[in-house]
Write a structure and sequence with these properties.
about 270 residues; alpha/beta; TIM Barrel; two-stranded antiparallel ribbon; 12 helices; 10 strands
Length: about 270
Amino acid sequence: MGILEQLISDASKGVAARRRQTPLSDLENRLESRDRDRPFREALTRPGMSLICEFKRRSPSAGDIAPGTELAEQVQAYEQGGAAALSVLTDSTNFGGSLEDLATARSSCGLPIIRKDFIVDHYQLVEAAVGGADAILLIVAVLDDQRLRDFQSAAWDLDLDCVVEVHDEPELDRALEAEAEVIGINNRNLDTGVVDVGTTYELITDVPAGKTVVSESGISRREELVELERVGVDAALIGESLMRADDPAAKVRELSGMSDATSEHLLP
């Protein structure tokens, strides 16, 4: 079984287990009490480069990243540093995350949050909405065309923005055919684990005007962000370099080119 197939299989098993514990109807009954005042896409479309700062305990490729890091302290540091939004891994089997992490992040800062996981079931959309997410990640490589459209429509009905993730031209074509509004270009090949930031440069030329573009994976230097902004990228999702930083707030400021005195996230 390939890496991606294993991740999908683990996600499906996790959904089945949680559904047995908490029926969908119980989750839906909790939707009315959710807080909906943190627009995610809007945070990415301000002038300049927006940083989506990620909390990630471990990954299949990197192993443990920052053992013992307190989630609340980390996301507060991201906010203090000028992050535009948060990404929170909720996959438990391979990334050490949980839905509780989503709730903790929500209560610890005021930033909009994307639930980053392998979404394979409508149940996970309702989980995300109830759990405190403002957006979800939909990975084109994981979903057929019908489920991609259905999940995106259902997410919008739940007032969740969608980052539709692609890695190559056929996946980008499928995302555009599904009328995705936010295109996430993953520089990491999910099957091989190889990271190449050139993937963003190759694909962005085929993204129509009016779409929001996020570059994901392999970004750790300000110079890279400046160049990505130059070619039209709206936001960058950054995880490992921030998780490993001794001072994550300072690292966010460094990446975004901000002085210690400013709370803006805009590039100069």
